[in-house]
Amino acid sequence: MSGKPTAIIFGGLNTCSRALAAFLVPLDGEPLVSHLRIVDKYSVNPPTTYLGAEFPQVLEKGIVEYKQANLTIPSTVTSCFDPPAGQEAYSYVFDLTGEIQWDRPEQVQIKTTFNVARLVGLEAAKRKVQAYVRLQHPFYECKEKGSHDEKEDVKPDGVLGTWWHETLRMLASIEDLNLVVLRSAMVYGPYVDYGVVMCFIAVASTYGYIKQPMKALWGPGKHPTHTVHVEDVAGGMWACAEWMSKIGRKEANSIAGEEILFKNDKSKVKEVEGMVAPDQKCVAPAFNIEDDSNTSMADLGNIITSFFGTTFEFHNFLTNMLANWKLEENVEEINESHVSNWTEMIQKSNPPVSKLHYTAYMDLYHLKKHVVAFNATKLKEVVGYKLRRPQINHDTLREVIDKLKAEGSWPNLQGSS
């Protein structure tokens, strides 16, 4: 036996699991695990979701196995924990399951976020896995001021945020589950194709192309908009698993436990199986992860637009007020310039864009104000995690764009970033 742990990644093929898989089993270098199973609803051959250029190479590694599965079915979840013949039981579970589309109805969120995580969590507890790391996306409305640490009371953002948060309470209530919650800031990085930052990058590139300033709908204010590189999300999840495996849930709770407060409609408790009573105290070790950039929206805008050779500005008060008053009605008008310029960039690309995947279209969620700020001091001090990409800057952006150009999913224009 190698002495290395075995691991399963559930879900997240459309968010961070590809980066996590590449972190655990790198294309060059020694793998961190002896066997890795990845489970999601998508097909990888042929692909039914975007995979990026490197993930298919990870899947070719002999110790990596991909299973396409419907995780809403209890028996399917159970079978996913059965290791291959001659293989030890799985040591670590990385839970990246959950619906990330903001406009899905509540019943979809309950079925594909809450229920799926419950099935996976219950089975993991039954199998006595050494560590169960749950990735929590920044689906919260943070305050502009405050400590921004794990104890700060933040409000879930809409239906999406409510059920992602409820999922944490449910997992925390499962006895004998070696749970660690890792809550991320806004994710960006090579082959990341979701979230506000990557959309912002695409739109900023169109303003660089037409050599016009990019203007935001929201006044500058403090407006924290904190970021984290996808490689640090992966590294943070691994560090949390290693930390938990050495001490177990009881000690982890005493060191890093945080109460996960009830933020839902009390009437739902009787309707949703597995939902925890509002007055039940739910505690789990929880950590934030973000880089050291500490960016405001203005900072982030300036970093990204300057990379594309333009500037970041704000509309005047009256324009902001009118746009936000009827934001839903103005979505298409706001996008008209972005999308037409992006289309022109693709048409002029040399070499041609062969994978029409990224877009400069900003939907209603991307256009709304998002305040995201999660102090990550605790992860560094308690777990000892050291950031691999501590700053979002022109170097990290160049790495992202160069890799997308190389795979043919980003327009390549003479003399442009």
From TrEMBL:
Transmembrane segments: none annotated. Coiled coil: none annotated. This is Nucleoside-diphosphate-sugar epimerase-like protein. It comes from the Eukaryota. InterPro entries: Lipid_A_modif_metabolic_enz, NAD(P)-bd_dom_sf.
